[in-house]
């Protein structure tokens, strides 16, 4: 099927934040997406609609509560379609980090001293620290897989670290700091051959690529709707048998149906869950197809093509600047990277560059983005870190030009 292109003007008109004028009167450039994307009006409306028309707690004997139950059931079904798995394993929570702590604590209760966990140098600490803490509590061994020269996961190192003691391989599908796409299928196969679970962090992947837990071979996967045009929220999926059986830490009277609900502690962020449904509909609206699944498939093809073109432009323009080094994958190959770029600008502090760009209306991130392993591996000061530019499908060619032009002026002015 031919990929329908993205009409960027039509897209941008749906995002109130993208109309924002910065200090100089020019529209702000949002290259801060890897830290959280902007949201379309449909998401904002879904959240206010929920609060004005059906705000209630769950499982009550009255209309607004019934509507809330209905909305959450729809959100689980949307979550399942979004990740390509069953809705039984969908869990919502305040953010990915909190959910991961919860899920890992539940899984940890099934492990015994001497069991091994594999984490990676490329991961955000939300998929590292909870394992380290759990290992400390339960006498487990944590092994960290390193990276190759282009900052991808080192499969030879993974093979060397796997053994019949390995119980889980925890890794990211995409790096939030340098944009690498990891070879998920190969990693899953290696993990499963060793009898280990595959525990995937899809937070930095979800705005850019279609998730398919079946095709990727995941047993557990987590993402954050606020990184893909939704509100602040976390969501996870796990295999139904795990969702039914892992010893969740929960209050005794809480219900256990559907299984994913077993890991939801306390009252959920209902209005954000309503916003999540609208965010999935928004992404699907970028594609074509007879059903949600088909529209999401097509939408992500369009997102991938658009982002690859912009990534190519950005890399080309950055190459013209002195002192600028792009870390990791050097070209825009969409099988190797997403449009998240961690830059080292020799002789310039990322915080100062980001601040100066911000003053010109170009919003970027600086620091380590909690991707501690990779920032340390690059030999950078953990506090200083990198300057990060993140492209989303709603960004434009002229924004790229503006950003690179401003960066160039900062470098030549010093
Ligand atoms: C790759 C990755 N994993 C995990 C997280 C943590 O997500 P949350 O903010 O939802 O806890 C982030 C947040 O930046 C991330 O980029």
Brief characterization of the structure:
By secondary structure, this protein is an alpha/beta fold. It has helices at 8-13, 41-53, 63-83, 96-108, 129-138, 155-161, 184-193, 213-216, 240-245, 270-285, 292-319, 350-359, 372-377, 397-413, and strands at residues 29-30, 90-93, 116-120, 141-145, 166-172, 197-201, 220-223, 234-238, 324-326, 340-345, 362-363, 365-367, 386-390.
Keywords:
single chain, alpha/beta, Aspartate Aminotransferase, domain 1, Aspartate Aminotransferase, domain 2, 7-stranded mixed β-sheet, 4-stranded antiparallel β-sheet, 13 strands, 40% helix
Structure commentary:
- 40% of the residues lie in helices and 14% in strands.
- It has helices at 8-13, 41-53, 63-83, 96-108, 129-138, 155-161, 184-193, 213-216, 240-245, 270-285, 292-319, 350-359, 372-377, 397-413; strands at 29-30, 90-93, 116-120, 141-145, 166-172, 197-201, 220-223, 234-238, 324-326, 340-345, 362-363, 365-367, 386-390.
- The strands form three sheets. It has a seven-stranded mixed sheet, with helices on both faces. It has a four-stranded antiparallel sheet with strand order 9-10-13-12, covered by helices on one side. Strands 1-11 form a two-stranded parallel ribbon.
- It is globular.
- Bound molecules: pyridoxal-5'-phosphate (PLP).
């Amino acid at each position: 099927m031919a990929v329908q292109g993205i009409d960027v003007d039509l897209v941008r008109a749906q995002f109130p934040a993208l109309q924002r004028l910065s200090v100089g009167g020019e529209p702000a450039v949002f290259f801060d997406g890897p830290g959280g994307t902007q949201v379309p009006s449909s998401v904002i409306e879904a959240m206010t609609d929920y609060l004005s028309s059906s705000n209630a707690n769950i499982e009550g004997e009255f209309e607004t509560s019934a509507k809330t139950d209905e909305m959450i059931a729809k959100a689980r079904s949307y979550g399942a379609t979004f990740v390509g798995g069953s809705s039984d394993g969908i869990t919502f929570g305040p953010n990915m980090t909190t959910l991961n702590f919860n899920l890992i604590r539940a899984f940890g209760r099934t492990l015994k001293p001497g069991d091994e966990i594999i984490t990676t140098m490329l991961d955000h600490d939300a998929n590292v620290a909870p394992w380290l803490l759990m290992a400390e509590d339960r006498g487990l061994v944590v092994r960290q897989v390193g990276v190759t020269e282009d900052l991808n996961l080192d499969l030879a190192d993974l093979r060397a670290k796997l053994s019949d003691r390995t119980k889980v391989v925890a890794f990211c599908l995409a790096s939030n700091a340098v944009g690498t796409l990891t070879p998920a299928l190969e990693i899953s196969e290696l993990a499963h051959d060793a009898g280990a679970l595959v525990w995937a962090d899809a937070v930095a992947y979800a705005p850019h690529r279609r998730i398919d837990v079946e095709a990727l071979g995941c047993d557990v996967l987590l993402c954050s709707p606020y990184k893909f045009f939704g509100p602040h929220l976390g969501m996870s999926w796990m295999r139904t048998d795990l969702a039914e059986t892992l010893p969740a830490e929960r209050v005794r009277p809480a219900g256990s149906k559907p299984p994913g609900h077993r890991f939801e502690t306390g009252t959920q962020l209902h209005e954000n869950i309503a916003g999540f449904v609208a965010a999935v509909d928004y992404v699907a609206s970028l594609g074509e197809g007879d059903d949600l699944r088909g529209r999401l498939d097509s939408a992500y093809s369009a997102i991938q093509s658009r982002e690859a073109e912009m990534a190519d432009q950005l890399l080309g323009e950055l190459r013209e600047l002195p002192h600028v080094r792009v870390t990791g994958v050097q070209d825009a190959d969409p099988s190797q990277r997403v449009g998240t770029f961690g830059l080292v600008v020799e002789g310039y502090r990322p915080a100062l560059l980001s601040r100066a760009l911000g003053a010109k209306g170009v919003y970027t991130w600086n620091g380590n983005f909690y991707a501690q392993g990779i920032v340390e591996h690059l030999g950078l000061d953990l506090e200083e870190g990198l300057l990060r530019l993140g492209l989303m499908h709603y960004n434009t060619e002229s924004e790229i030009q503006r950003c690179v032009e401003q960066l160039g002026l900062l470098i030549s002015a010093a």
